[in-house]
Amino acid sequence: MAQTPPTRSAAFFDLDKTVIARSSALAFTRQFYDGGLLTKRGMLRSAIAQLQFLLTSDHTDQVEKMRRHVTEMCAGWEAATVRSIVSETLDDVVRPVIFAEAAALIAEHKAAGRDIILISASGIEMVEPIGELLGADTVRATVMTVVDGRYSGEIEFYCYGDQKAIAMRELAEAHGYDLAECYAYSDSSTDIPMLEAAGHRAVVNPDKALRAYATQLDWEILDFPNPAPLVDWSDPATRGWTAAAAAGVGVVAAVAVAAGLSALRHHRGDGPPSGGRHAAA
Q1: Active site residue 16
Q2: Model pTM?
Q3: Quick one: 10-231 is in which CATH superfamily?
């Protein structure tokens, strides 16, 4: 009797506030400023946008505001320059803000033979390199329109809301995933379609609306408080480590708040700039 071939499965992860502790779309603001792409005023606006993202408990309006901010900010930039800056500074910017618990969860899914897929509303230029850093098999992200090598300020594909669930179904068809056996993780109520597309789902650091929805449906709720440098989770000596190397709980948010307020005071003439690396990240 012929055996049924094994069904492939995958784990789908949102990125911001699910795998990393900040907005990937704005994480490289300081580096873009250093590379000559941003003005001081633009850097200040991005610092404030990052603060709002970190502190908001309702993503519905915030994500749309961030989309407008990022597309306006990037209009006219050379796409190749953006990719180069992200590649050169990825370790310094992203590695310290990966949630230790998310890294461990990704390692568990990989060990179980599941593909790892990042699916994010942030730009592909940021998400693709982050996916490589995390060992993701596939990435789906927002694609901005490029004309003559420069961003036009328009969006070709917006990986947001229902589009994430559509992308999941397309990937399942292309790669033979049984979505009923797949896993999905997100922090935002805007990703409910994505979460409902998978047979197994959990909410991570959920916003207020998603926490209430998950509680009502008895979904698993995970709290990842520990951003920490990415370690080799394939090493048995480090696989069980979580809190010990993540002593900086809350440090990312605190640094962002302090830097943003310092930048705001400087813009108003109330005090000196902080001059720190995270001033607009």
Answers
A1: yes
A2: 0.74
A3: HAD superfamily/HAD-like (3.40.50.1000)
